[in-house]
Amino acid sequence: MVRLGGILGALALAASPLAASECRLALVLAIDVSSSVDEAEDILQRGGLASALIAPEVEAAVFAAPLPVAIAVYEWSGRYNQELLVDWTLLETRADLLRVAETIGRSERSHNDFPTAMGYALGYGAGLFQRGPRCHFSVLDMAGDGENNEGFPPSAAYAEFPFASVTVNGLVVQASDYQAEISLVEYYQKNVLHGPGAFLEVARGFDDYERAMRRKLERELTPRAVGALPPATKVPPG
């Protein structure tokens, strides 16, 4: 496990962090581009995320408090296959939010034939937070349609990388097979959700990705009282 600490330097980007600024939430969105996600599904998730970000209820949540939200977005698959889509951006105006959504909507996947290395993906996210803005809350979203099948598991990432002040939520994209659906939801609940108030949202296939992401973003972006953290929970889909 000692080697995992050294991986953080390789996973973190060399670019300078966002200039220091007061912000209420640092939000990192991670989307799955492993081999289980085909081209059509990838288009649905990119378009779904872009549309969810500019949905009226999500936009209202982004700008519902005086302090801005900072956001970064990356895609992940194999051990060393992470790609930054949107570097840290302060959402101070509607134009900022539209630019982020447009960047995601126009993006193309960087990898399409690698397995699901969720521990490495989480390590990459930890690196982003380390060089990102210091906000009152930090949330990482792990979206995916499968369990970790390469490299170290999420539990090792949480043990070795700086996640003490980060909440990790999940968005599960369910398969058509009922048993696979139950298994993946349970996997996320037991292994992926992390930190105070962590919760899970479920998309019933990639056609439902936009709805699920919209619901999750609204919940995450709605302002919380500083210093009033909720108890750690794992909310089942409903």
Structure write-up:
With about 240 residues, the chain is α/β, with parallel strands linked by helices. The chain has a single domain (about 20-150, about 165-175, about 190-220), classed as Rossmann fold (3-Layer(aba) Sandwich). Helices cover about 40% and strands about 20% of the residues. It has helices spanning about 1-10, 40-55, 55-60, 95-105, 120-130, 155-160, 180-190, 210-220, and strands at about 25-30, 70-75, 80-90, 135-145, 165-175, 200-205. Strands 3-2-1-4-5-6 form a six-stranded mixed β-sheet, with helices on both faces. α3 (about 55-60) runs parallel beside α8 and α5 (about 120-130) runs parallel beside α6. The radius of gyration is 16 Å and the shape is globular. The protein starts with a helix and ends in a 17-residue tail after the last helix. The relative contact order is 0.19. The model is unreliable at about 10-15 and about 230-238 (pLDDT under 50).
Quick structural overview:
With 238 residues, the chain is of the alpha/beta class.
Largest sheet: 6 strands, mixed
How would you spell out the order of helices and strands? HEHHEEHHEHEHEH
CATH class: Alpha Beta
| Strand count | 6
Mean pLDDT: 87
Shape: globular
Structural class: alpha/beta
State the end-to-end distance.
36 Å
Strand content: 15-25%
